[in-house]
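Narrative of accomplishments. A recurring question from our advisory board has been how the design workflow behaves on a single, concrete structure rather than in aggregate. To address it, we present the structure tokens for one chain from the evaluation set, followed by the sequence designed for it. No filtering or post-editing was applied between the two.
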């Protein structure tokens, strides 16, 4: 996964590091309703990507009422729904603490 780009004001793609002590939960970054888009590279299972691309192409061309004009219109709501489910299951329904960087590569087997 690509590392976030640092900008002069100390923010990282809209997420600002908290000036407090490490481990202290303070809200950072923009609200969840921000329409700012950030390009990232992720890996999909080929079959999932092919189905999503086919759906986005068909819906954009033939079903404008679906509101799907691009692959992002499928991916963003799906990821948001799953993250919300994970927050409910593992974090008492609260957003997980923001991070500046994710570790690269796959996590070690436990």
């Amino acid at each position: 996964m690509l590392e976030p780009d640092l900008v002069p004001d100390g923010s990282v793609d809209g997420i600002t590091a908290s000036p407090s002590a490490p481990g202290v939960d303070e809200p950072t970054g923009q609200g969840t309703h921000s329409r700012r888009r950030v390009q990232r590279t992720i890996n999909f299972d080929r079959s999932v990507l092919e189905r999503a691309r086919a759906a986005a192409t068909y819906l954009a061309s033939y079903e404008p009422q679906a509101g799907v004009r691009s692959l992002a219109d499928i991916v963003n709501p799906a990821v948001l729904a799953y993250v919300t489910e994970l927050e409910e299951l593992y974090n008492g329904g609260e957003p997980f603490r923001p991070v500046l960087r994710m570790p690269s590569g796959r996590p070690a087997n436990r």
